[in-house]
Design goal:
By secondary structure, this protein is mainly alpha-helical. Helices cover about 75% and strands about 0% of the residues.
């Protein structure tokens, strides 16, 4: 009996090594462990699909890597080449800025007008609200192919209508200016529902009592829009413009399906020109440098827009 008591006391004094999980719980608590467990899958996805490709593109941009041959480190030569020696890249930069600025401005202005019309609709309002989303939810490649047929000189329905009206016809995708206008219009047509529906949600969230009080005080419809609708809708508009600007700057499908960057490289954007140089021409280093050139532009846009969002939110409050 005495021997068994000594053994029990000895076993009780033996310290069991603490596992990593137990130590983590002692330091941070069980809630923190559960929180990190929940974000672990998202972290793995971000590292595998965002961080690793981004790091690989940075490595390629600093090398003379081509498809089928390992490259060597060349520093900033790819960036210096596209900035100072590549005329197509400079034109691509200009096209991208024009494309994003005009398309986002058109979507914001017409989207607000369409949202106001949707709010005023009383009959068949559910039908109209659903129909507005069709261009946005339809596959991009399919709808862009339809627009390609509309603009095509041989099968163009648009030229057929112009000819029947006695108006001159145009080679829409063969002229440099008209081709750029065409891709801007298709991007505007596709992105308009996103603006309209989101702004419509913002309009519905504005208290109706504010309009009733303003109308009682004799405010006109334009005054109610200028001093009630627009200020309270600005935070929503700032968020929409931020996301739309990012998506528009990185657009690829519309330009590639409609013009493939032509004619004479006049409609290339960063995404299409990077694809052409990196994949079609097998020059991965130059293609990565072109695609990364968009990164500082996006960072500047995001910082500027977030400051505007914060300012508009404080103004609305």
């Amino acid at each position: 009996m005495a021997t068994s008591g000594v053994k029990s006391e000895t076993l009780a004094r033996v310290e069991v090594p603490m596992t990593f999980t137990k130590r983590f719980e002692n330091v941070f608590g069980k809630d923190a462990l559960a929180g990190y467990g929940f974000i672990l899958p998202a972290t793995i996805v971000l590292v595998a699909l965002v961080a690793y490709p981004f790091g690989l593109s940075v490595y390629y941009s600093l090398s003379d890597k081509v498809i089928g041959r390992p490259g060597s480190f060349i520093g900033l030569d790819n960036f210096l080449y596209i900035i100072f020696d590549d005329d197509i890249f400079r034109r691509t930069l200009r096209n991208t800025l024009i494309f994003a600025t005009v398309a986002v401005a058109l979507k914001a202005s017409f989207g607000l007008g369409l949202a106001l019309l949707l709010k005023q609709a009383t009959k068949l309002k559910r039908f109209f609200r659903g129909a507005v989303l069709v261009p946005f939810v339809a596959p991009t490649a399919l709808t862009t192919l339809g627009w390609w047929l509309i603009f095509d000189p041989t099968y163009s329905q648009l030229n057929w209508v112009l000819k029947r009206l006695g108006l001159p016809t145009y080679y829409w995708l063969g002229d440099e200016t008209l081709a750029l206008c065409a891709v801007i219009f298709v991007n505007f047509w596709r992105g308009l529902p996103f603006f309209a529906v989101t702004m419509f949600a913002g309009l519905v969230a504005i208290p109706q009592e504010l309009y009733e009080a303003a109308e009682t005080d004799g405010a006109s419809a334009f005054s109610r829009f200028l001093y009630i609708t627009l200020p309270l809708l600005r935070p929503v508009m700032a968020i929409i413009i931020l996301f739309s600007t990012i998506f528009t700057l990185a657009d690829f499908n519309i330009v590639y399906v409609l013009t493939r960057g032509g004619p004479m490289n006049s409609t290339h954007l960063f995404a299409t020109y990077a694809y052409t140089m990196g994949i079609m021409n097998s020059d991965l280093g130059t293609g990565a440098a072109i695609s990364l050139f968009l990164f500082p532009i996006l960072v500047f846009v995001v910082i500027f827009q977030l400051k505007m969002v914060r300012r508009q939110t404080d103004y609305a409050l």
